[in-house]
Q: What sequence folds into this?
């Protein structure tokens, strides 16, 4: 795989993981900040969000790096 293909895959993995977390939170009742019974975000969900953001950021950096002719 080329660096650009890896970058695109990392970006998609990050986006899909964040979308899955968002859907999971909505299904559990976290619709708005005005509700009184918002479920707390668990450490596992924080870890997943952090890893997803990191994967997307690394993918974006790798994509820009490969776009500029480095890879």
A:
């Amino acid at each position: 795989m080329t660096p650009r293909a890896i970058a695109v895959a990392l970006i998609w993995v990050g986006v899909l993981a964040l979308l899955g977390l968002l859907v999971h939170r909505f299904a559990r009742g976290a619709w708005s900040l005005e509700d009184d019974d918002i479920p707390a975000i668990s450490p596992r969900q924080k870890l997943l969000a952090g890893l997803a953001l990191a994967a997307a950021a690394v993918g974006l950096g790798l994509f820009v790096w490969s776009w500029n002719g480095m890879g």
